[in-house]
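ARCHIVE CARD
CATEGORY: sequence design from structure
SOURCE FIELD: tokenized fold
FIELD CONTENT:
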């Protein structure tokens, strides 16, 4: 097994665990807000962001594997240059979900 290209079942399992952990963190932060009126940055921002990233890992291949499957030469790409447009969109949605989650728990929305 190539550690840079895990089997699909392993990738999907890890993605599901990350998404579930993020959702759990957000639900615990939400529960804390209803009990005490306070919340953590990790639960408010990180929970939704990790949920979206976990779903991305579950649904899509890694950005490196996507480029290799298309036959692209990745030897000259920088680490940031490896990220495909699909994964840039996943990262953007994850950041947006984090901001929305934190704003909602803070009472800004």
């Amino acid at each position: 097994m190539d550690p840079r290209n895990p089997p699909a079942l392993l990738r999907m399992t890890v993605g599901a665990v990350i998404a579930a952990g993020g959702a759990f963190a957000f639900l615990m932060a939400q529960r804390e807000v209803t009990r005490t009126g306070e919340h953590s940055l990790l639960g408010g921002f990180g929970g939704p962001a990790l949920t979206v990233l976990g779903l991305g890992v579950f649904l899509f291949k890694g950005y490196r594997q996507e480029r290799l499957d298309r036959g692209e030469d990745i030897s000259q790409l920088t680490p940031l240059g490896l990220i495909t447009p699909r994964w840039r969109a996943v990262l953007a949605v994850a950041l947006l979900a984090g901001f929305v989650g934190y704003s909602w728990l803070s009472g800004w929305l």
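CARD ANNOTATION: The chain has a mean pLDDT of 89. Residues 8-106 form one domain.
SHELF: design records, drawer C
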